[in-house]
Amino acid sequence: MENRTSESVVLWCRFGNCSQIDPRQRRRLGFPFPQSAQFGFLVHTPVAAAPHLTLSNRIFERTLRAQPRGVEIPVVREGSFFSGDRTFLGVPAGEGVRVSLRAYDPWVHLPTPTTNLVLIRVSVQTLAGDELGSFELRPQILNPEGPAVDYYKPGIAMVHDLAAVVPAVAAHERVHIRVSAQPAQAQYYGMVAVTDNETQTVSIISAQ
Asked: Are 189 and 103 in contact (CB under 8 A)?
């Protein structure tokens, strides 16, 4: 993270004061992530400082050494949460890869008419737009390490292998994955990961 302001900035997360960044400094954030870090975390910063902070989140494979340069994981600001429909375009599919999908509900703790995400509908399509199959996801709090309510953790729903849910995917080299929220005005975020079955290298696909 880089703090481009002239004041120290404190970051808050589920562990309390996660880190303090001195003025005009760069440093590695030492969050005490548990093994379930895949569930995501919400980090809070002062509103005035947020536009002046630069963050990068990269995961390194230490076992297989398949990706020595790491895999970039999106750091999503509140203003970049999705609403309505989004499509992950041209996602590599087929028998040689494994496609996973994660959908996050950042406001799961605030069940109001404008933020409460009931479900996400997922439609898998060919490049020509023909639907191969569809299903629904219901993001919820998954917190095996602590209390049922964790105000610094988003709701999440995951599909670890898209072909297991929509078998027709295996017959196509690329597909589109269209997601839509119910109700339509609810905010959420989603990301797709494609893993090569032979090399175990991972690509992250986002929707802008």
From this structure: yes
Strand partners for 202: 195
167 — pLDDT class (breaks 50, 70, 90):
very high
| Residue 58, CA distances (Å) to 29, 79, 180, 185 in order | 12, 21, 27, 31
The residue type of 189 is: Y
Burial 158-181 (b: 16+ CB within 10 A, else e): ebeebbebbeebbebeebbbbbbb
The span from the CA of 121 to the CA of 188, in Å, is 12
pTM attached to this predicted model: 0.86
Give the tens place of pLDDT for each residue, 16-56.
567 788 999 998 876 555 555 567 778 888 899 999 999 98
d(CA 206, CA 196): 17
Q: In angstroms, what CA-CA distances link 11 with 2, 38, 75, 137? A: 12, 20, 14, 31
144 vs 55 pLDDT, higher one: 55
pLDDT at 176 (0 to 100): 98
Residue 143: pLDDT band with limits 50, 70, 90: low
Q: Give the integer Cα–Cα distance in Å for 27 and 15.
A: 19
| Domain annotation for the chain: domains and CATH numbers | 2-55 (no CATH), 83-205 (2.60.120)
> SS3 letters for 8-54?
CEEEEECCEEEEEECCCEECCCCCCCCCCHHHCCCCECCCCCHHHEE
